[in-house]
Design brief:
three-stranded mixed β-sheet, single chain, alpha+beta, flat, 5 strands, 131 residues, two-stranded antiparallel sheet
């Protein structure tokens, strides 16, 4: 059951207005003026993930969160930036069909893809792998 609280709405507002895939720490920092405790942020974010209202993005540097569900992600192993990746729906449909036919899984709620590599900015610097 979804509880509508002021804290929940504040957390959702920060995520809706963010395009940088915040971590819990960054969420807490953005909400510090609202007097929302870290435990409340953790609890609320976990609830929002379970309700499929936000996306949890597992990256080598930790967990990030995204309000938008219409895309996937690319994580740069050098600068740690996360970029949105939009894939053709027919490609995703083929992937789902393949998963279903090979493993008989038909109750997939969502796909959480994170591509990892070196972004064009870091590749241009030629310094990747140094950090």
């Amino acid at each position: 059951m979804e509880r509508k609280t002021i804290q929940r709405q504040e957390i959702m507002d920060v995520l809706k207005n963010s395009y940088d895939h915040k971590t819990i720490k960054e969420l807490c920092e953005a909400l510090k003026d609202k007097n929302i405790g870290q435990a409340t942020v953790y609890r609320t974010v976990n609830s929002l993930v379970l309700e499929n209202k936000i996306r949890r993005i597992e990256c080598p540097d930790g967990v990030h969160y995204d309000y938008r569900m219409d895309h996937y992600h690319f994580y740069c192993l050098d600068c740690h930036n996360i970029k949105d990746v939009f894939l053709d729906d027919s490609l995703i449909d083929k992937l789902l069909l393949n998963v279903h036919s090979n493993s008989n899984l038909d109750d997939i709620k969502y796909i959480n893809l994170v591509f990892e590599g070196i972004c064009d900015s870091c590749k241009g610097k030629g310094s990747y792998g140094v950090k």
